[in-house]
Amino acid sequence: MQPDVAPVYHNLIACHECDLLQRLPPEHGRGRVRCRRCGCVLHTSGHDAVAVPLALGLTALVLFVLSNAFPLLDFIVQGQRDTTYLLAGIRELFLQGRPLLASIVLLTTVLAPLVHIALLIYIHLPLALGRRPPGFARALRASQEVLPWSMLEIFLLGVLVAAVKLSEQATIVPGPAAWSLGLLVVVLAGAATQVHPHRLWERVR
Predict the structure, then answer these.
(1) Which residues contact 50 (CB under 8 A, 6 or more apart)?
(2) Rounded distance between C-alpha atoms, residue 117 and residue 112, angstroms
(3) N or C, which end of the chain has less CB nearby within 10 Å?
């Protein structure tokens, strides 16, 4: 008969900055717990670990749809208006013979953010309903691994720089997608700070 070793590993957590393995104190349900070595925040409390990320994930999904369905920018040159869309711009890169660049833009501005949002909802929606999502561990790991590939903020910065440079030659009007894209960057950044894997594991135990 094997001994019960579960209590030995109970409340153990590894710092995601310095990898120090340490045990959460009994009162970790209140306030913040920081790493003994580097001071990084290991655990926070004070809000629902499921409701807030789920709300941000659903908001991000709506903004993502708006960002891809509506015009990004309108260029007005000598009375002629030209409307650009995010996906149309990626398609234009393919047609110009730049498949590698088009693939990178597609991955970092469409596919990676969409997968991240989908995983965010997939993880938190069942938990909000009192259920454990199938493949919870893999989904949680995948959501953390895909996050660095989402580079909407870099794309948005590039669009702003290009718009400033072209403003001397044309009148540039931001479309609905430009505003929703900016809000999407903020919402995803907020969601990244509200997802606490250790607290999610506590919910599924």
Answers:
(1) 124, 127, 128, 200, 203
(2) 9
(3) N
CB 12 within 8 A of CB 21: yes
Indicate the residue type of 121. I
Residue 169: C-alpha distances to residues 93, 134, 156 (Å): 22, 54, 20
Lookup result for tokens 């991955």: 107
Q: How far is CA 147 from CA 37, 56, 109, 188, in A?
A: 26, 15, 12, 10
Tokens of 145: 């691994």
The per-residue pLDDT for 31 is 60
pLDDT tens-place string over residues 73-105 = 888 887 788 888 889 989 998 999 999 999 999
Say yes or no to pLDDT of 6 above 50: no
Closest CA to 192 of 131, 149, 161: 149
Q: What is the Cα–Cα distance from 17 to 196, expressed in whole angstroms?
A: 14
pTM: 0.78
* Average pLDDT value for the chain: 84
CA 79/CA 75 separation, integer angstroms: 10
Dump pLDDT digits (tens) for 39-71: 877 766 655 678 899 999 999 999 999 999 999
Integer Cα distance of 135 and 112 in angstroms: 19
